[in-house]
Every structure is written in structure tokens, then in C-alpha cells.
Amino acid sequence: MRILLIGATGMIGRRVADEARRRGHEVTGVTRSGNEGTAKAEAADAAAIAGLAKGHDAAVLAIAPPRDGSEPTGPLLAGGRGALDGLRQAGVRRVVVVGGAGSLLVGPGARLVDTPEFPDLYKGEALAQGELLDVVRAEAGDLDWTYISPAAGIEPGERTGTFRLGGDELLTDADGKSFISAEDYAVALVDELEKSQAVGRRITVAY
């Protein structure tokens, strides 16, 4: 499979690239800087994304909001919409979106991001990622999309290949902890690229 990976040098993007390549897939990395052997393009530049996406079988959108204290939602949604438009222009229908955990439900109508325990430092980013999910659900019906939320906690760790998949609800273990390594998140994402078992919906992955 030829995969266009937009946001290839972030914590998750790097691991998705590694996981896909270890399975024999061809990965074209895209970043804003063009560093580390990646193609240079802004996700919001639909024409640039279209040019890079031609000839690919699928795409992964692994972009994040700005973390410099500026307003996060506008840039993230512009990047998401631009990338999706570029994929449409290139005829690439399959796209997996790296999402956030904040929009996962912890009770009837209650999101993780709205709980008192959710860190204020990450609230703006979480809300922006939730809005991107809304955009994908509302505007990407012509694409074969999947949005994958991680557990509440995600960081570099071990690749075990053992985890649970869920839907819109936050997954926790017997102790109430919600965690996934970035490596196992990447395993789940590439599994979904290969199997397409959750097209048109959001899933989550945790231990």
C-alpha cells in the first residue's frame, strides 16, 4: 500500500511511519518544514496535498493544533479541511485521522474534556480536535474515513500489539486508568488501514 502521511515527524506520525514500513508499505511523509526526508507542504494547501497524494492508496492525517499559545481551532480545522480537499482532488478516498481523546464520552452526554479533572493546559487542543471530528463527520461523507482517538494518556513506550478497541466511549482498565503507548496506537492505526473495519466512524484504542 502507498500511504501519504501528513504530519510525519510528530510523536504519533513517526511511529505510524515506522509501523507501516515494517509491514512493507510505502510511506510518503509530509511536513510543514520538509525536514528528515519528508515532502514540504501545509496541510491547509489543498493543491499541494493533491499533488503529493496522486498515486497513493490511502492517507493518514496526523496534524496537531499549534502549541504556541495561539488559538488552536482555526489552524487545525483549516489543515483538516485542506487535506481532505486535496485528497478528494487526487482521488484518494481512504483516510485515517489521528484524533484526540477529549471528545470521548465518560457518561451520557459527558465528554472527557468537560470533566473537572481534565488539565486546563490541554483543554484548547482537545476542544479543537473534537471540532475536527465534527467536521469529518459532517463534511467527509464522500471519503472512506476513520477517526482514531487514543486513550486519555498516550506517550512513547512499548510495542506489545495487545490492546482493546472501542467506539465513542473512553476505555479504562480495571483500575480506572486509560492509557496506550504511541507504538501500540500506531499498530492499531495501521491495522485499520489494512482491514478497513471502521470506515465512517470514530474508534478508540487503549489497554
UniProtKB/TrEMBL annotation:
InterPro entries recorded: NAD(P)-bd_dom, NAD(P)-bd_dom_sf, Polyketide_Oxido-like
One Pfam family from the record: NAD_binding_10
Occurrences of domain NAD(P)-binding (ranges): 7-194
PANTHER family: FLAVIN REDUCTASE (NADPH) (PTHR43355)
UniProt-recorded name of the protein: NAD(P)-dependent oxidoreductase
